[in-house]
Write a structure and sequence with these properties.
By secondary structure, the chain is mainly alpha-helical. Helix content is 44%, strand content 8%. It has 11 helices and 7 strands.
Length: 351
């Protein structure tokens, strides 16, 4: 009888193909992780609201800080300095209620007082794009985790007085700290940290299918990246498509290619009409300056309704505009054109 019972159970289990069971297992695992994350977030918010609702002083501080920051706005008003000081004073109580804060480096330096606001851990994300001003974050935490990638977009030092920064460096830290000469406008926080601490490389990659990340893996990471995204469930194939624009020529020394921009937008619109691209988001990256991206954006505004642009989250720009962001489908505009049948000429950064 027991044998018959077990035989029935096994027969019931094996009645469904193994591939289907495996697929269900993966889907249920994803759903479990999602629900676990939602539960953790809801419990955290519940705990936070419970504390703030019972303490009127903390509640006043939180709402007061929020309204004060709103009044500061762009920080160009006459009362901005006074309001910043008030915001810092209120933050001393706000941190007690909210233990974790996420904000840009500039806002963190503006709102927190290192003599009062101390954290156990501070995480600086995209540190390869953070300039030397981000060093001040070190005062706020017992432990700092610096996350970045020196193979990606680096700090640009736009709008900074380089001569003044160099003068301050020579005045205060020259021959005082190791590698003092590296502390300039174009050295990132990630680079500075790398001169003292051994970096830990994250090798698992979940965002792109292997065909896409494979190029960067070969070019910059010595094949040490492990692509873990399964491309078999991707309905948009192939992942990479080369499209040659006939008669697409860069206009002299200008960084635009009108024919290429027109073709790119036409292809984007055509994709939107295909069922495989339903609800997919789009981006266009110019590999040569921002002028081409602005031209593509202008053509998109002419051909698509604002509601479609918003729904598809269409973004046009250079590589730095997509740093830390993503779209389902990206169009790369080379902009430059070759002379005759030969390859593209070799050009330096920004040329």
């Amino acid at each position: 009888w027991k044998w018959k019972q077990f035989a029935g159970i096994i027969e019931e289990i094996t009645a469904e193909p193994y591939e289907e069971l495996q697929k269900k297992s993966v889907e249920l695992s994803k759903e479990l992780r999602k629900k676990t994350a939602e539960l953790a977030a809801n419990k955290a918010w519940y705990h936070l609201l419970l504390n703030t609702e019972q303490n009127i002083e903390i509640k006043q501080a939180l709402l007061g800080w929020k309204l004060t920051v709103k009044k500061i706005g762009k920080g160009t008003g006459k009362n901005a300095p006074v309001l910043r000081k008030q915001a810092r004073d209120l933050m001393a109580k706000c941190q007690v209620a909210v233990p974790a804060w996420i904000m840009p480096v500039g806002k963190a330096l503006e709102n927190f007082n290192p003599s009062i606001n101390r954290f156990d851990v501070a995480i600086v994300d995209e540190a390869s794009q953070s300039d030397l001003s981000a060093l001040a974050i070190m005062y706020f935490a017992k432990k700092v985790i610096i996350v970045g990638d020196d193979k990606q977009v680096s700090t640009m030092a736009v709008g900074l007085d380089i001569d003044r920064i160099n003068a301050l460096r020579d005045m205060y830290i020259k021959d005082v700290i190791p590698n003092w000469h590296l502390y300039d406008a174009k050295t990132s926080l990630y680079d500075i940290a790398g001169t003292t601490y051994q970096s830990l490389m994250l090798r698992e990659h979940f965002r792109c299918v292997p065909d896409i990340i494979g190029y960067s893996n070969k070019l910059s990471y010595n094949f040490e990246i492990k692509p873990l995204r399964d491309s078999s469930n991707c309905v948009i194939v192939p992942p990479l498509v080369n499209y040659r624009v006939m008669n697409g020529q860069r206009e002299g020394r200008r960084k635009i290619n009108v024919q290429e921009a027109e073709y790119l937008v036409s292809l984007m619109v055509a994709c939107m009409k295909q069922p495989e691209y339903d609800r997919k988001t789009f981006g266009a990256i110019s590999l040569l300056g921002e002028d081409q991206a602005k031209l593509i954006q202008q053509i998109i505004f002419e051909r698509l309704e604002p509601s479609v642009i918003q729904e598809r989250r269409i973004l046009c720009g250079n590589a730095s505009h997509f740093q830390g962001d993503e779209r389902d489908v990206i169009f790369l505009s080379m902009v430059d054109s070759n002379e005759g049948d030969g390859p593209l000429k070799l050009s330096g950064e920004g040329a």
